[in-house]
Amino acid sequence: PVYSVSLYFQTLNLACPLDLKSIALQARNAEYNPKHFAAVIMRISEPRTTALIFSSGKMKLGFPAKFLDFKIQNMVGSCDACFPIHLEGLVLITSSSPELFCGLIYRMVKPRIVLLIFVSGKVVLTGIKERSEIYEAFENINPILKGFRKQ
User: Fold this and answer.
1) Mean pLDDT to the nearest integer, 107-121
2) What residues have CB less than 8 Å from 72, skipping those under 6 apart?
3) Strands in the chain per DSSP E
4) Between 82 and 102, whose confidence is greater?
5) DSSP H stretches of helix in the chain
């Protein structure tokens, strides 16, 4: 199977206040409307990402930035079992509600992540902290999925 990471959620602390209005006026692809949201929203095309810049952080031209407490909060990955899944059978060993969501929600204990399993065999993995957890989770779920392979 081919594994991929589609999202990264990261946090950092720049350790000094920012003038959000000034950032929004001088930066490209930046939006700031404090009545609706208390941060500058900056959309970057390459790599395609969105940044939220809050006034409690630090960003100042001419000074190198210091990144404190940088860590990945959540990653979203995906993989394909390469065969259709009989979700009706698999739902018996999970706490999913197929009438509310077209996929099956599977909460894995180790690694501690959530898998969204679809009848097509596609699987979305959320709550990942390290890239290696994508492989580990799919290795754990693959034998279970094979047991519910549609004929």
Assistant:
1) 93
2) 8, 9, 10, 129, 130
3) 4-13, 30-31, 39-45, 48-54, 68-80, 104-108, 113-117, 122-128
4) 82
5) 20-26, 87-90, 132-147
